Amino acid sequence: MRIKAKIIDEIGLTRTVTRLAHEIIEKNKGSENIAIIGMRTRGEFLAKRIHKKISEIDGSQPELGVLDVTLYRDDFRMRLKQPEVSVTDIAFDVNEKNLILVDDVLYTGRTVRAALDALMDLGRPNSIQFCVLVDRGHREMPIVADFVGKNIPTSINEEVKVKMKEIDSEDAVYLVESPNN
């Protein structure tokens, strides 16, 4: 995998998280009725950072949860012989909440569609808003993010790799050459 460009560095990632937190608060007129739900794996860590920043800015503690969509994906049987299933940890009532679904990269839209199915199985929220660090284009489904950290148009033979200190020992976003090319 060849790195083509470093798109966001540690300082840029911190600024982006701060901006996304402000946009979420503004759109929802505060944070009283929101819940932040991060999608495994890097979406979980991004959600925790956004949650912390919202708490600092608005002085409240929105609910925080983690969603694993492995079994809801339409391609899990094709891609994985034995799917690696993680734990969904949403220990609060989603009914009548404004859910902020958080992920690192928006690509085809299939993972988000799976997440919507999973969330609807948990209840009936007022709304589900989607927050993504990077939108790289190439949608296969009619999915649009409500909050976007950065739009990075990519070619089909490029990928966006998000690195987060919690699991990768650095905070950065890279544009890389796809290993299949």
What does this structure look like?
This protein is of the alpha/beta class and 181 residues long. The protein has a single domain (11-156), classed as Rossmann fold, CATH 3.40.50.2020. It has 5 helices and 8 strands; from the N terminus they run βαβαβαβαβββαβ. Helix 1 crosses helix 2 (42-58). Strand 2, helix 2 (42-58) and strand 3 form a beta-alpha-beta unit.
- The proportion of residues in beta strands is 25-35%
CATH top level label: Alpha Beta
Rg to the nearest angstrom? 16 Å
Task: Kindly identify the CATH topology.
Answer: Rossmann fold
- Overall morphology: globular
Spatial strand sequence of the major β-sheet: 3-2-4-5-6
**How many E strands?**
8
- What structural category do the secondary elements indicate? alpha/beta
| Major sheet summary line | 5 strands, parallel
Poorly predicted tracts of residues: none
Residues in helices, as a percent range: 25-40%
- What is the CA–CA distance across the termini? 9 Å
Please indicate the count of domains: 1
- CATH architecture term: 3-Layer(aba) Sandwich
* Element-level helix/strand string: EHEHEHEHEEEHE
Count the helices. How many?
5
- Residue-averaged pLDDT, rounded? 92
